[in-house]
Amino acid sequence: MASSTDRPAAGSGGITADRLAVLIGRDTLHAPLNASLATNIRAMVSDGRLPVGSRLPAERELATALGLSRVTVSTAYRRLREQGWAGAHQGSGTWTRTPDGGRVVAAWVPGVPLEGQLDLSYTAPSGPPEVAEAYATALTMLPRHLPGHGYAPQGLPELRERLAARFTARGLPTSVEQVVVTLGAAGGITAALRALTDPGDRVLVEHPVWPNALDVLGVLRTRAVPVPLDPERTAEFVAALHRAARQTSARAAYLVPDFSNPTGAVLDVEDRRHLAASLQQQDVTVLADETLTDLPLEGQEVPPPLAAFARPGAVVTVGSLSKAVWAGVRTGWVRGEAPFLARVASAMSREHGSLSIVDQLAACALLDGLDDALVRRRAELRTQRDALVAALAARLPEWRVPVPDGGLSLWCHLPPGTSSSLLADAAEPLGLRIATGSRFGTGHAFDDRLRLPFTQPVPVLERAVELLVAARDAAAAGHGRRPAPREAVLLG
Ligand SMILES: Cc1ncc(COP(=O)(O)O)c(C=O)c1O
Question: Cβ-count burial of 189 within 10 angstroms (0-12 exposed, 13-18 middle, 19+ buried)?
Fold first, then answer.
């Protein structure tokens, strides 16, 4: 039986019997019907079509809508409860959950790669020469700061000014007071989610999703509510977010509006307008992660920030230099309203006091040269993306590989029967490390997907594809092996 904290939020909505019957599709059920119905509902919870925390229809109503006996539905609900996919409490009916309670605590990166091993588990480009130059500039600026105490909990004013000016130039007028500097986007996401939520709150997430966001939500003891995101159907995603917000009384949403990791999805201007209006109306605060915003690869304009479409305070924005420049600089930021930012700053200062002055001075120099550096970064990523797509088409033509027009990764659809976890297990001893598709989902979704970053040089990517071919053959021959449990640490 679920614990009381697993109950649906007060006032959370349910799905009607007729709608659930349409989603299930009577024709897809086969004997034994109760097991088939339970499996069907479970699949919808795990891939987010049926949000975690939704109230299921009364047994009698679903039985009527599907033309089944009530005993069949009742047995299916019991199976779901026994397997941890549903909870029930006197007076509050049956609602959906996941066996881990919606908490996903396994954001992952393997240990140190073995000698000669290719590591495609990160989406993080190498640092350009400008980084060293920026640190040299920072050291020349440092003496001016030495007479002070060296603490700057909200960030150096000159860095905040530059960040505010970039937002303003992108169509979102921003003052220095509306920006704080953070330890990477990761630091900003953690501090912002801590300030936005309480334990037990529902938080909508795009699905697939950057796994560390799920990890943070788990640590904060909130409930991730996955909402399916198909990069080719973003308007449907916005509509599904609206429904999920209504059904679960969600408090917040974590979204990556530009070049989502892993899918590369972008929300267009219309999507942004609808999304902002819908979530605002339902009092859901959005945390918009703009970590990949600077990476359009086809010369296209990226729409203005999501916050430009919402009233002040309804959208909190985080960003970072990690993907545009280099993750080693560890400079990110949060944009929001001043009272909220005061809470973010105090959450951060409890956690790590303040940030390095040298890193922030280097970040100022990097921002001054960012537009030129981005021209080179985008050209390099475009070449690498195209080479990886071409190698996959030549060597693994049975894979479906949508080509994103920005970002850092391909989200590959594996052919029926191919499991990305078996593939990863088979690839590891061959010298290739990859992140399995299921890392990007809640429950058990996406084992038939694989994220491949195009952040490494072309020869590395081409070699990786050869190793994937060998891994596919080894997995098919049953030669994959289960590696030891992996550590729970950051995944880029
Ligand atoms: C969507 C997204 N957000 C945040 C991060 C973390 O960025 P940072 O290195 O600035 O903490 C990543 C890194 O992969 C990411 O893909």
Answer: buried
Sign of the torsion angle spanned by Cα atoms 89, 244, 70, 18: positive
Largest CA distance in the chain: 79
Contact between 41 and 80 under an 8 Å Cβ cutoff? The reply is yes
Structural domains of the chain ordered from first start:
4-96 (1.10.10.10), 118-128+372-476 (3.90.1150.10), 130-370 (3.40.640.10)
Task: Decide if pLDDT at 10 tops 60.
Answer: no
pLDDT digits (tens, 9 = 90+) for 446-480: 989 999 999 999 999 999 999 999 999 998 876 55
CA 101–ligand 1 middle distance (angstroms): 25
Q: Which atom of ligand 1 is nearest to the CA of 187?
A: 11
pTM of the entire structure?
0.80
19 alpha carbon to ligand 1 midpoint, in Å? 37
Distance 214 CA to ligand 1 centre (A): 13
Which residues contact ligand 1 via a Cβ below 6 A? 123, 184-186, 210, 256, 261, 289, 291, 320, 322, 327, 332, 492
pLDDT tens column, 201-251: 999 999 999 999 998 999 999 999 999 999 999 999 999 999 999 999 999
Atom of ligand 1 nearest to the CA of 320: 10
| First-last CA distance in the chain | 36
